[in-house]
Amino acid sequence: MSTIIQKLREYLDKAEEEQIRQLDQLVATTGLPVYKDPKTGALVWVDVRELRLRFQLSVNKIAKFVEGLSQEKLYYTVCKRCGAKYFPPQADCPRCKSSDMEWREVSREGELLTWTVINVKPASFAHNKDYVVGIVKMPEGFNITAWVDADPSTLRPGMKLRLIVGRRPGENYVTYWFKPA
Amino acid sequence: MRRVAVVGVGISKFGYRPDVSLPELAWEAVKEALDDARLDGKDIEAYVVGNVGGWSSEPLPAVVVGEYCGLAPSSGIRVEAACASGSSAVRTAYHMVASGEADIVMAIGVEKMNESPTPTVVEFIGRAGNYFWEFENFGLTFPGYYALHATAYMNKYGATEADLCEIAVKNHYYGSLNPKAQFQKPITLEECLKSRYVAWPLKLYDSSPITDGSAAVILASEEVAKKITDTPVWIKAIGAANGTSNLSRRDDFTGLEAARLAAQRAYKKAGIDPSEPVKYLDVAEVHDCFTIAEIMAYEDLGLAKRGEGYKLAREKQTYIGGVIPVNLSGGLKAKGHPIGATGVAMIAELTRQLRQEVERGRQAPIKKGMALAHNVGGTGHYAFVTILSL
Ligand SMILES: [Zn+2]
User: Fold this and answer.
1) pTM to 2 decimals?
2) ipTM
3) What CATH superfamily is the domain B4-117+210-228?
4) Best B248, B250, B252, B254 residue to mutate vs chain A (most A CBs within 10 Å)
5) Domain count of chain A?
6) Does A48 touch chain B (CB under 8 A)?
7) If you ran DSSP here, which 8-state letter would residue B385 be given?
8) Chain B interface mutation, best of A120, A132, A173, highest count of B Cβ atoms under 10 Å
9) Are both A38 and A75 inside the same structural domain?
């Protein structure tokens, strides 16, 4: 079963396939990656050096959050000194400058504050159907941004939503989302 | 702190510009500003470049622009404040002159977004929130961040998609009178309402386009300004503030706290009564990257009460002749939004408004001699409010 990693690479390669073939053909024939922009007639040099980026983000200090995901749980942090609550979880409390944090599991139900449907998608999400992103107020006092798995026409401000942690269908890696309660 | 004046301004043609490279594009505005001030590159003691980049090939735009425009070896840097990078460039240049470090400094904004295909640009701007917690897992887009505000605003106050489209209609109308604008045609309310959704409830015509463009302003100390020009335009105040990167860390999605704070700070310094700023101002340029952003700007700036910004749009009160004319350049919506250039272009536009030298049909009547620029970076991540006066 392939995951987002392989799936996305194949999708992006396929989307660019024809363009790359034409560019290669152009350089083979003329010796130059130069073409006339069809809209304006301007001469354009297409970069021959492709840059691919995949960042390596440290989650070392929020290892408990990662461990939680693997157990299908979502964790936040509470500062043991001043009681400040953090979601996304922070390893450090700027309010009192302490780094002594307690990890607690986020409760499973919240209230929808606002939402949107992403119709025009970024390149790395273009393989998905339109998706709903919401911001949900949790009883702990903080908000959580995540996908809402629901028909957007049924959503109302203040409606109760249930938090799910698990493998996202289609992308097959563990993340979290909301569903109508 | 010394008084600082704008003594020269320039703006390139905004739009899809594959006909020029990034430094060539910058030169269009730099040359116009130098000509306007009757100065040469060697007169510029320092320059500050607003550019976000990522989508364009030059990682060090300040040195590339400095070399091409003959500004090196003067000191130059690039500054970043997302879509408000231009205002941050003006602010840094302002500080250099106000502090006495230099007498003549240029702020340049330049962006070449069309060096990358549209999905890549959508990807880059979508990543401009709090990367891991908003993009990596949830694929938010720039229209998406503002759409979260539009949904909240419309639900709370009863504004409609047609109210939002009124902003697009106005800004396209004024853009049609601005030869530098990306879009040169007026649109109808029906065309806006029929356009496809990009991030529901925002549609294509609610959104500013992907734009290549540049702008430049030359700032000078009082002593030097009076030698250069008979019509110096003074920078009375620049208010700046930041919001959280992660939208979920905010309580309210019907306005931008950073913009409210930036306005308060600017009004205080400029001696403007924050309860009635329209009494002091002839014209404003506000950050309408999306139509909802202009409506929130009316409220964050105190041009309308909370929850009543959409009524200004519905009643067409921000055309010339209304309560206060807003975005007579066409705004980001129709003039275009070359991210790093936008804030500089606002100052250039308002300087020309105050000098009463813009095109017929979009010149505000200048009676009080004051103008306001409101430039937001990201979704209220950065905000700058700048007050100019004759
Ligand atoms: Zn603490």
Assistant:
1) 0.97
2) 0.96
3) Thiolase/Chalcone synthase (3.40.47.10)
4) B248
5) 3
6) no
7) E
8) A120
9) no
